[in-house]
Amino acid sequence: MPTTIRKSPGSTQWADLTQAYRTGQRESIAQTAMALLVEGGGVGLSMSALAQAAGISRPTLYRYYPDMESVLVGVAGLFSQHDESFAAEIMAESDPRQQLQTFIDAVTDPSAHGHLTAVELEAALPPEGRALLHGHEDRARGLLADILRRGIQAGVFASDINPDTDARLIFGLTQQAQPDSVERVHVLVDKLVQPTKRRKS
User: Fold this and answer.
1) Does residue 22 belong to any structural domain of this protein?
2) How many CB atoms lie within 10 A of CB 201?
3) Which of 64, 80, 118, 179 has the lowest tally of Cβ within 10 angstroms?
């Protein structure tokens, strides 16, 4: 009769803790790489510099990321890992105007990517990383289009805006915004969506 090997609850718990630790380490290293990208735009970014900035040895770094390309894929993954929770937070707001403001503030938050624009980040990423970034951007534009639709239905946004087209326009503005131009982005978006004046097509 074959013997069935059963894992004890303790071994399963240990495996879960180990996996959580490894995931946390990978995320921490990717966040450090992002900080270095923001600071230097990719200039001088190397495995040695990353290990030093992360406070770990190079052998430890190689256990989590075998090369710089995989590090950059990890950086791209930082953008998409909170997409679902961010969308839930936005949609928990009852007022589409507040949803739109929260969205813009979050996307233009300088602590997220500093002065590094989306174009600069994309240029630094390998193909797999660019695919992750594009997926994140597609979900963000979809969320923004949903906000615009809700605003039209609620009568707080102009009825003649095009949710899909204008979502791309607004998202493009937020991606290019620098910390000193965020208020200007809000002003431009308000003029675009306000229902008081019908815009000419």
Assistant:
1) yes
2) 5
3) 179
